[in-house]
Amino acid sequence: MNTLLPYLNENLIEAGCDEAGRGCLAGPVIAAAVILPKDFRHEWLNDSKQLSEKKRKILKPIIEEHAIAFGIGIVYEKEIDEINILNASIKAMHLALDHLSIVPEFILIDGNRFKKYKDIPHETIIKGDGKLLNIAAASILAKTYRDEYMEKLNEEIPGYQWSKNKGYPTKDHRNAIEKIGPSKYHRMSFTLLAPDQLSLFD
Fold it and tell me: Pick from 80, 81, 41, 55: which is nearest to 143 by CA?
């Protein structure tokens, strides 16, 4: 059984927020916002990075069914290149909050950077997805929605093995970029090749 806290403020409607895909070379950054019942518990619910893909997929519909409200926000690679990944991550979280059917009274953010959303008070919590259940739930939704998105892109362009690496800078992913070049889904503001590969273009 995990020891994540069910809430920070017992008497406020809290939304947990997290994003997935910030460190990827391709595809969007996807965020989720989740309002859980104060008494919601699940023995697996934890930071998405601590869970297997199978457990995340099982938890996704459980979270969606039991959540008081949840929302998903997506910022695509072209806008990431225009406004940078930090701003894109925060915008995705704002979009996820926009899609909540209930307006929260307090927002809990995984990480240490955020821009005020409307006039709602918030708190940033480093490694919050391993501390609070609503942030953990948001991390699972963000991760599963993004993984599904990258699997669909892989069907369109299979050469980068996105169904396996989900767009993260693995050796195989970078080798594919070196061989076939970047796709329209790559983030051109990112360093797509590793330093030892860049020398090939000098």
Answer: 55
